[in-house]
Amino acid sequence: MNRKRISTVPYVIWMALFVVIPLLLIVVYAFTTKDGGFSLENFSELGSYTAVFIRSIVLALTATVICLVIGYPVSYILARESASFQRISNMLIMLPMWINFLLRTYAWMSILENTGMINRFLGKIGVLALLGVDHIQLINTNGAVILGMVYNYLPFMILPIFSVIQRLDRSLIEAAQDLGATGFQVFTKVIFPLSLPGVLSGITMVFVPSISTFAISKLLGGGTSLLLGDLIEMQFLGGAKNPYLGSAISLIMMIMVMVCMLIMNRFGEGEEEAVML
Amino acid sequence: MSERLILLENINKYYGTQHILKDINLYVRDKEFVTLLGPSGCGKTTTLRLIGGFERPDTGNVYFNGKIINDVPPNKRSVNTVFQRYALFTHLNVFDNIAFGLRISGCPESEIPLKVREMLRLVNLKGYESRDVTSLSGGEQQRIAIARALVNHPKVLLLDEPLGALDLKLRKEMQRELKAIQQKVGITFVYVTHDQEEALTMSDTIVVMNKGRIQQIGTPVDVYNEPKNAFVADFIGESNIIDGTMPEDLLVKFSGRDFKCLDSGFEPNEPVDVVVRPEDITIVPYDKGQLRGEVTSVTFMGVHYDIRIKTDDYVWTVHSIRQAFPGENVGIYLHPDDIHIMHKSIPEPSDEEEEEDE
Asked: At A106, which CATH number?
């Protein structure tokens, strides 16, 4: 074995121990029953959780779309600002990510609670009395879960799009104008298509964590709207204690994510490679 | 060739405190090949961008077909540009790149393939329709950029150093091809370059610029043979430039002696720049020379030898097909025909504070 080969050994061992073997274990568990026999039972049981699958996909998709709708214009405007402004705003976008994820989500709880900041404020200014209610239900709703996802994952949408737009050659925009394109046409025919790699990687980076999250739905959804992440957690740690079923769900979710990414890559084919941050 | 298609009138342009263009007056006739020539930072690209609509003049007017177009945006002008680094759309293939302008202008989809094919034939890239632009060589990308601009049948094609990124052989080939394309499509070309040879070979008219000012406008032959000042003489081709004075008409004094020349109309004893082209100097035996010196270096250049001859007060550059040897004592003979007298150029007052903008 030459030296180059030897130097890769630690990484190969690491990958095998912590990536390949756990993945294989999940596959094996997914096809095993409680008494240890091979079976497809776990998968047939999945049918009763269709609602959870659908809810997870819908909420994650909604959060992704909202992130895109907010994130794209932000990235676009940012990319045209001065370098010093860009540095400061990038810093501000990243800043919340330096604070613990749970802490950030707890903070939203105290804002959205029935006796939380928003409801107290609405009470003070008399809106609640006007409506004849003693609080507006904000927490423990799907809306709160989506809000949590958007808040936590928005930077993952902004940063890749920003970096693609920022690197766009200005002469391409001038070339489009030169060929007769109006400002709107320059955007739809040149800037947007060229920023697609950033958009695709942003979508992936928001959708994947959104579909598998469990903390956000637990804290902001109050367990009323069970998501895939919660379901898996329940099987391994919670009351249900059925790691075999949990593995089956994980496997299906992984396949779903992989299919999504394959579709994405097909979209991005021939484009510049997606920018990962 | 008589109609003034583009007219720039008293144009001044500033970037912040930098004075980029100074009193530019220039016209371009229909179907003419005009080259803006100058060193980097001379304002030639800015002048082109004014015509393209990417810059506004701070003072003065840009006319197109007799109408002021200062405020007309680039997408409303009937000029198209070939950009320095081609600026091809990497998300589109060759066909869609060329069809871009046609689709914007609402050309019926059924006519587009024919027009694209015609353009590809014009630039010698038949059958390239479905190629990915990023897979093309520099020269091919260049041709696509030209096709993309020409397919819209602009009145004027603006070219910003289009051959700058190509190697020498390809550049020469493209020079000939560009000239042929211009003659075939019969439209006006405004061409920006810092390469004097490129300007001489392709242009009908050369506009020599330096430090934001036009130095000379003329045909290639005029600009080469009758440069208006020492800058033009030095920038276009090589030149020996010596300080001298004009005691009287047809007589110039430099290097401590009088020479006959063909120039007149100077003030008595006016200080002048004396310009002699290296190829116009004849090397003669030492005792027969008007000037005498020693050969300091000889470089073989292919067609000729580049010879440096040191006299008492100047090192002359001489191009000769006759070889000389370093250390040899030789004489220099200058024919009155080959001595060009130029007014001293008035130094720019703001020269020192200016920086190159490119």
From this structure: 1.10.3720.10
Backbone angles phi, psi at B227, to 5 degrees: -60, 145
Cα–Cα dist B349/B292, whole Å: 38
For the segment B350-357, the average pLDDT, to the nearest whole number, is 43
d(CA A117, CA B300): 87
Which element (helix H / strand E) includes A73?
helix A50-79
> Tens digit of pLDDT for each residue in A83-127?
999 999 999 998 988 899 889 999 999 999 988 999 999 989 988
Alpha-carbon distance A257 to nearest alpha carbon in chain B (angstroms):
26
**ipTM above threshold 0.95:** no
Supply the CATH classification number for the domain B240-343.
2.40.50.140
Q: Which residue of B has its CA nearest to A179?
A: B101
For residue A107, the enclosing domain spans: 49-267
- A216 assigned to some structural domain: yes
pLDDT tens track for B118-152: 999 999 999 999 999 999 998 899 999 999 999 99
Angle at B267 between CA B265 and CA B270, to 5 degrees: 115
CB contact under 8 A, B74 and A178: yes
Nearest CA in chain B to A269: B91
List chain A residues with CB under 8 Å of B87: 169, 171-172, 174-175
Of A171, A185, A271, the CB nearest to B104: A185
Q: Tens digits of per-residue pLDDT, A29-82? A: 999 888 888 888 888 888 888 999 999 999 999 999 999 999 999 999 999 889
Q: Does domain B4-225 have CATH number 3.40.50.300?
A: yes
CB–CB contacts below 8 A, A to B: 65
Maximum Cα–Cα distance across chain B = 79
| CB burial string A133-168: b at 16+ within 10 A, e below | eebeebbbbbbbbbbbbbbbbbbbbbbbbbbbbbee
Which residue of A178, A190, A199 is the best one to mutate when testing the B interface, meaning the one whose CB has the most B CBs within 10 A?
A: A178
CA distance A67 to A203: 8
Contact yes or no for A172 and B87 at CB 8 A: yes
For residue A268, name the pLDDT band (cuts at 50, 70, 90). Answer: low
The residues spanned by each domain of chain B are: 4-225, 240-343
A3 part of a folded domain:
no
Q: Which residues of B touch A270 (CB under 8 A)?
A: 91, 132
Is the residue at A234 inside a domain? Answer: yes
